[in-house]
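Write out this protein's structure.
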Amino acid sequence: MSTNFKLNKMSKTKFNGFEKYFIQTALRHAIQEAETDVLAAESAGKKSLYAPGYFTMVGNEIIDKVNSMTLKRYQD
């Protein structure tokens, strides 16, 4: 008896809703943490390689890219 199950029904080229949510949530957390680190270093008198707002700018571009690489029905 041979039963052929297709276990992986996910798109290989686009993100589904859960994947988009997971990636964007992780990115938002990383952006917030990086911005906090930059501000903390600045307030401690240390020089940072990154200006405040840099990670927010780059992170939001990546979030937009993830959205554009998501199946249409799950896009913002």
